[in-house]
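Margin note from the TA: students keep mixing up input and output lines. Inputs are the sequences; the output is the structure of the whole complex. Example:
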Amino acid sequence: MTQRPSILVARAIFPEVIERLREHFDVETNHTDAPFTPQQLAERLQGKVAVLTTGSERIGAELLAACPQLKVVANIAVGYNNFDVPAMTAAGVLATNTPDVLTETTADFGFALLMATARRVTESEHFLRAGLWSKWALDMFAGAEVHGSTLGILGMGRIGQGIARRGAHGFGMQVIYHNRSRLDAASEAACQARYVSKAELLKQADHLVLVLPYSAESHHAIGAAELAQMKPTATLINIARGGIVDDAALAVALRERRIAAAGLDVFEGEPQVHPDLLTVPNVVLTPHIASATITTRKAMANLAADNVIAFLTQGQPLTPLNPEVLPKVLNA
Ligand code: GLV
């Protein structure tokens, strides 16, 4: 009997997905769910041809050099800034991610965070839980209007367009966006969105939602200078990646009320959160949960598993990030 390929699942995932993988492979899991150190990951990957990762596993040149048998890394995330894709391509290792299956769920959350931020939901709940509510008042926790306001979106991919549709069709918002490349006319019409420069976006948005991928180019795309261009009544929502916002500069802007409020699902250096963000009241903080519904998280884990199965059994991954490596890996 030929030996079955060995693979690693680097974090705890749904048992039924492990069972599906076990139909094809010898599967090593991480029962504790504690993220591996780079050295532990390299050790666990010895003899493995595939690994399912999350954003907490960094795949770079050093790890790849230490794991010559590795053929495919399947991220259970649409974002893949934990991958050094050029290094993976150079090493002949296929990279995959999980697009599409999380688009609508993540757009729902972006909108939820926008609403919670604009209408001061968590700040007022903390006040109530602290026993501070003694009377109703006309201006108590008065927030920012959502319907009919101007929704700005920085990064107009699938999730950005999902948020735009919700704003335009559900809340009668004027939608403006900025992106590296402008959408085609049909896509702009579908989400009633108007392309503007980044400067105009910062100036005009009542609610600015960040949905762009993290890269060297987008590092601190929103820092002190950009925050200074926003309306003092504006809110800023980050569901993209930590590092796109300069969190220290944002904490200052929130404390000094240079913008009204922020909603953050992602943080520089998460799971650490900049201590100053924890002490300002006008920010809603959530622990990177934008795609977290059971249905969607299962779909993401299944898509990552399907990528590994389809690639290792038929040579045809479903959502490859560097398909140019396929001939090299398949002929190796
Ligand atoms: C989550 O942040 C993802 O990229 O899927």
